[in-house]
């Protein structure tokens, strides 16, 4: 999947709760992992591997 800024995504946190947010940026780690900068709906910024998120339907 190709991610871009503005896409709505969700993932599960360490407690198994759903976290929703908006992609703010996309980068690639030195090992090739695609990393997303996501602003959670709570306002917090987090960097997560793209493989760990799912896009939300509009």
Please report the first level of CATH classification, the CATH class. Answer: Mainly Beta
Low-confidence stretches: none
Q: Topology as H/E string?
A: EEEEE
Total strand segments: 5
Whole-angstrom Rg: 11 Å
Rough shape? globular
Tally the helices. 0
Taking the sheet with the most strands, its summary is: 5 strands, antiparallel
Briefly note the structural class of the backbone.
mainly beta
Question: What is the correct CATH architecture?
Answer: Roll
User: Separation of termini?
Assistant: 17 Å
Instruction: Please state how the strands of the largest beta sheet are arranged side by side.
Output: 4-3-2-1-5
Average pLDDT score = 95
- Kindly give the count of domains: 1
Beta content: over 45%
Helical content stands at under 10%
Q: Please name the CATH topology.
A: SH3 type barrels
Structure description:
There is one protein chain. This protein has strands spanning 8-12, 18-28, 34-40, 45-49, 54-55. The model has no long low-confidence stretch (mean pLDDT 95). The chain has a single domain (8-55), classed as SH3 type barrels (Roll), CATH 2.30.30. Strand 2 (18-28) and strand 3 (34-40) form a beta hairpin. By secondary structure, the protein is mainly beta.
């Amino acid at each position: 999947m190709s991610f871009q800024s503005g896409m709505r995504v969700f993932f599960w946190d360490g407690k198994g709760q759903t976290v929703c947010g908006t992609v703010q940026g996309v980068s690639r780690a030195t090992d090739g992992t695609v990393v997303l900068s996501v602003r959670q709906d709570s306002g917090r910024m987090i960097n997560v591997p793209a493989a760990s998120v799912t896009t939300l339907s509009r």
